[in-house]
Amino acid sequence: MLRHQCRKFKKYRGIKTIRADLNLLLKLIEEDTVNVKILHLIRDPRGVANSRRQVYSVDSNSMQRRLAARGYRHRVLHDDRVANPFPGEGRRPMSLHHHHYQSPIARGTRLDILGLMETSDVFPLLNTMPAYCKWLDSTITLAQKQPDWLKGRYKLIRYEDYAATPLSVTEDVYRYFDMYLPDKVRRWVANNTEGDVKGGDRLYGSHKNSSEAAFKWRTLMTAEEALQVEKECGDIMKRLGYRTTSSRVRLDDLEQSLFLPLPDDIPREL
User: Fold this and answer.
1) How far apart are CA 10 and CA 27, in angstroms?
2) Sequence spans of domains, the chain
3) Is 220:203 a contact under the CB 8 Å cutoff?
4) Which pairing describes strands 154-158 and 38-42: parallel, antiparallel, or unpaired?
């Protein structure tokens, strides 16, 4: 599929893939001689966990499947009340098609209930935080080895760095792709990453205060949930410059940064 899409256009073709294996692109580069450039966007795993929690809490179909896989029983409600295991979550009241999920013994955090901390193969591989951090670790390790086929084709960006200086990072991305940055793109970046967001869709919308959005998870996750992710993903977080709350940084103290400059041994661009 990638081969077909890349050959379809003569000039530029952008394809967004979610947590793709870098090795999948090796054949495309070596055998098809396609001029591929990779922009690898990463984020603090705690922010990723919170984002997934919000999505599954809003998307009733996804949540029903995950709760059912966790062994939660359900019963049909005989009235019009909307049952939501996480009241107050999401952009609108969530319909569970009048099903109310209940576990024989409800234990754990919201991440546990949704199966996001599972280590088994009950859920799709990369939908859990342990699997996500394992994938992230292997991908960064491959980039650190700087194989010949990846040189000149790989650039790493942390979401938090983009959120801090969106226009500067955008300029760097266009330079990497050897593309001219139009003024209308500059204006779009400025208009969609600055200021307070009033109304609209805060979860899926494109107009956000970037610096606020990047760390909003710190006010939405509990300390226990953050520690869960840190315990599972602490090694790769440290490698990528993300501080843990165990380093005497309070989760709710937004004046204290939880991300440091990217360590020198992590390749920003090959």
Assistant:
1) 20
2) 15-40+125-247, 49-113
3) no
4) parallel
Go through 243-254 and write b for each residue having 16 or more CB atoms within 10 A of its CB, e for each that does not: bbbeeeeebeee
Give the integer Cα–Cα distance in Å for 153 and 37.
4
- In 3D space, the residue among 98, 19, 113 whose CA is nearest the CA of residue 63 turns out to be 113
Query: Which amino acid, 96?
Result: L
Amino acid at 162: Y
The answer to whether residues 157 and 40 touch, using CB atoms and an 8 Å cutoff, is yes
At 90-122, the pLDDT tens digits run 434 333 333 444 444 445 678 877 778 887 655
Residue 65 phi, psi (nearest 5): -65, -40
Tens digits of per-residue pLDDT, 163-212?
889 999 999 999 999 999 999 999 988 888 775 545 444 444 444 567 77
Whole-structure pTM value: 0.74
Neighbours of 215 (CB within 10 A): 17
- For residues 119 and 233, give the distance between their C-alpha atoms in angstroms, rounded to a whole number: 13
Q: Which residues pair with 100 in a beta bridge?
A: 75
Q: Is the dihedral of CA 140, 141, 144, 145 positive or negative?
A: negative
HSE-up (13 A, CA, CB side) for residue 14: 7
**What is the spatial distance between Cα 179 and Cα 171, in angstroms, rounded to a whole number?**
9
DSSP-derived 3-state class of residue 264:
coil
- What's the CA dihedral at 11, 26, 122, 82 to 10 degrees? -10
Residues 6+ apart with CB under 8 A from 80: 98
Helix residue spans in 42-200 (DSSP H): 45-58, 60-69, 110-113, 129-145, 159-164, 166-176, 183-193
**Residue 42 phi, psi dihedral angles, 5° rounding:** -120, 165
